[in-house]
Design a protein that fits this description.
Domain Peptidase M24: 190-397
CATH topology of the largest domain: Creatine Amidinohydrolase
Order of helices and strands: HEHEEEHEHEHHHEEEEEEEHHEEEEEE
CATH architecture of the largest domain: Alpha-Beta Complex
Protein name: M24 family metallopeptidase
Pfam family, one: Peptidase_M24
Number of strands: 19
Distance between the termini: 52 Å
InterPro entries: Creatinase/aminopeptidase-like, Pept_M24
Largest sheet: 6 strands, mixed
Length: 431
């Protein structure tokens, strides 16, 4: 009996079998509708993605069927561009989902996978063969040294047609289908809801530590079936404990295992995975002091400044601009409005820190070589990550840092927030 089809934008997480059906449907659509244009743009007519079990090219997992959890011995995928589209061919001991099995000619005797690859290239006669090697993007540098050597040896005189597939790989990894963006709306909503639940139920001021809350968040994600892709982070700021300089940035100085106290500003950073997609979210809360009903105005104004910085950054996030150009324009706009801010946004999707244009780093606010020089494209998703600082009168003029991170999608219609951004501080009762 076939699995029941559900709309992934309505129920998360789906049962694993239904997740697999959704992911395989997306893969088919991406191979048919997305890949031909990406290969044409990169000038590649054969893309070879190879990996061995437990040492897979990061791209390989995005091409394998959902029921495959590793490469299984050696798996070589051949994606051949022709007038009819892209023909996906697999060189493997096992059937590989949507890929056509390559002819092995077993009747002629045992052959290696590389012999099969050579025969395919002999017949296809591609002009440019893309392989996953890159100095700038780790996710586009997945062809191992030994695999590269064996491929070159197998191809013989065809090896002079090998070219880096960096542009193709980054385009494949960063581009999202409309259905994937719709699912990311729901995944981001779940991430926000889990943080809100943690603030509301898992913090007992005077007893709970920052690390207690971090482990509660990780356990909650695990119990929901949406595994975190990094250890959740919880940091505290409080009056009387000023920021400290680290790697050129001003960061909170309260100990990571300190007990949460009334009057603290609590910051959470979590990311979850489901349907082969990732989220990356940050939220802030204020712990009320006895008798308080709201956070100090200075902290609310700091969050307002953070929201304004989000607006200034998304205004500058224009297709065709490089990550460095977006960073410079956003920082210039912030300076004009006297906002003290750092911007360090990044693509997010099939990987948490995804391939694509880097827009600054938390410890580097100048031009970045490589990833910073990559251009912004539509149909991509970013973690809009930044921080603002200002003195808070209610804390004796102490400088406070507000870190914000929010999923956004850039489409032909502009920027849309995935679920909702934080515009008010969450409030944690004093106890």
């Amino acid at each position: 009996m076939p699995p029941v089809q559900r709309d992934p934008t309505r129920t998360v997480p789906l049962p694993l079998r239904e997740q697999a059906a959704v992911r395989d449907r997306w893969l088919t659509q991406r191979l048919l509708d997305l890949l031909p244009g990406l290969m044409d743009g990169a000038g590649i007519d054969l893309w070879i993605v190879a990996g061995r079990e437990y040492n897979e090219d990061p791209v390989l997992a995005t091409l394998l069927p959902a029921a495959w959890l590793s490469a299984r011995r050696r798996t070589v995928l051949l994606l051949h561009r022709s007038d009819d589209g892209v023909t996906p061919v697999a060189v493997s001991r096992y059937p590989v989902g949507q890929f056509v099995p390559a002819a092995t000619e077993e009747s002629a005797g045992a052959t290696t996978e590389w012999d099969v690859v050579r025969r395919f290239v002999d017949q296809a006669r591609p002009a440019r063969i893309g392989v996953d090697v890159s100095a700038d993007f780790a996710l586009a540098d997945g062809l191992s040294h030994s695999e590269h050597g064996q491929l070159v040896e197998a191809l013989g005189h065809h090896a002079d047609r090998l070219v880096p597939a960096e542009r193709l790989v980054v385009g494949w990894l960063e581009t999202r289908l409309p259905e994937e963006i719709a699912a990311l709306h729901v995944l981001n909503r779940l991430a926000h809801d889990v943080i809100a639940e943690g603030f509301a139920t898992a913090v007992v001021p005077g007893s709970t530590t920052a690390i207690d809350l971090a482990w509660w968040l990780r356990q909650r994600l695990h119990d929901l079936g949406v595994e975190p892709w990094f250890q959740p982070s919880v940091t505290l700021q409080r009056a009387g404990v000023p920021l400290v300089e680290q790697s050129g940035a001003l960061l909170p100085a309260v100990a990571y295992d300190a007990v949460v106290l009334p009057g603290d500003l609590v910051h959470c950073d979590i990311g979850l995975t489901s349907l082969g997609l990732h989220t990356d979210s940050q939220r802030n809360a204020y712990v009320l002091r006895p008798g308080e009903r709201t956070a100090p105005d200075g902290l609310g104004e700091l969050l307002d400044a953070g929201n304004r910085m989000q607006d200034l950054t998304t205004t500058e996030l224009l297709p065709g601009r490089t990550g460095n150009e977006v960073l410079a324009a956003a920082r210039s706009a912030a300076a004009a409005e006297r906002i003290d801010a750092d911007v360090y946004s990044h693509p997010v999707g099939v990987h948490g820190h995804g391939a694509g244009p880097a827009i600054g780093r938390w410890d580097e606010q100048g031009d970045l070589p490589g990833a910073g020089e990559y251009a912004v494209h539509t149909d991509t998703v970013f973690a809009l990550e930044l921080a603002v600082r200002r003195s808070v009168p209610e804390w004796g003029g102490q400088c406070v840092r507000m870190g914000l991170e929010q999923g956004i999608a850039l489409t032909a219609d502009g920027v849309e927030y995935l679920d909702r951004r934080q515009t008010e501080l969450a409030l944690i009762p004093a106890g």
